[in-house]
Predict the structure.
Amino acid sequence: MKRIIVTGGYGFIGSNLIKILLKKNYKVLNIDNLKYSSNKYNLADLKSNNYNFLKIDINNKSKLLECFRKFKPFAIFNLAAETHVDRSIDNPSVFIKSNILGVFNLLEAIKDYRFKTNKEIKLIHISTDEVYGDIKKPERSDEKHPYNPSSPYSASKASADHLIASYVRTYKLSAIITNCSNNYGPRQFPEKFIPKIIYNIINNKKIPVYGKGKNSREWLYVTDHCDALIKILKKGRSGEKYNIGSNINLTNIKVVKTILDVISKNNIMNIGKNVKIKFVKDRPGHDLRYAINSKKLKKELNWKSKISFDKGILQTIKWYARNKKYFDLIPKKTFVKRIGLLK
Ligand code: NAD
């Protein structure tokens, strides 16, 4: 049985990935420092002997080395990160710590482990399309597109990508970087756009939309992302970068309208009187459009997204409507108040 570490496994994408890996018969060790966006509810229903969890910060090199020695993973999916752009505007330092120094530590731990044991660990590092910055219509950024990050979040992710590429070239570490577009689906922390909309509808509240709602994002259902990651683990080439996207771009206002429409048409819940779109002050430095070209992944690994936005959003809404407990476990103060505005 293949042994694999997932870092950040109590977060949104990590928890979805762990469930899929276990179904595919991997033995999984989840490493997470249990920061605000982690949620024990995300993996509470797991009943597998092939799953273990250790509370470790990826900045702790000696603990990482100890668990490499004991668990002997053949690969690591690194999803541990600070992930919310608005938080990075208010407090960039934690982003530097987890997203840059944390990745540096992880690389050093993998390098030391190889030196001491002669064993290779393959790193699959999960990065973002935000590293490419604002992309003008109708362009889509491919893997060779220059990096042009706009927020402390995307700059920290870009830095990590560069560090990893340097470790592949200089130390011949085995690593792949994946740059994915916006994910949506079950178990996403409600400070993020789609779960926030659904939370506000469930709670009969106004739906805040930044600026005029014209920002455009490429939306990918989370299990499509996980399937791509597993394909890349199996068949991707070390030192390569792979974009992962759906080719489906929607403006924020279109996303809100679609969610309201899908709820009404499918009679999922009552839409209260207070549920109205409210345009609020835009995010400082807000990129208008991200759009990636993921033809390389299709051509080389024969992967393409399977789940349409209409299908994925219906599944997503139904999950949050059925799992209100998920929201109950999250302190309101961590996601209700507007943040990320310059004072
Ligand atoms: P998330 O915020 O839901 O989860 C992040 C997890 O990492 C949390 O459980 C947190 O406790 C853990 N963590 C943070 N810092 C850590 C540290 N120093 N040590 C150990 N654990 C730590 O994030 P997500 O949306 O699941 O994103 C996962 C990864 O995917 C991130 O690297 C993010 O940049 C990337 N990504 C996300 C999206 C998206 O739309 N959500 C899109 C592209 C890429």
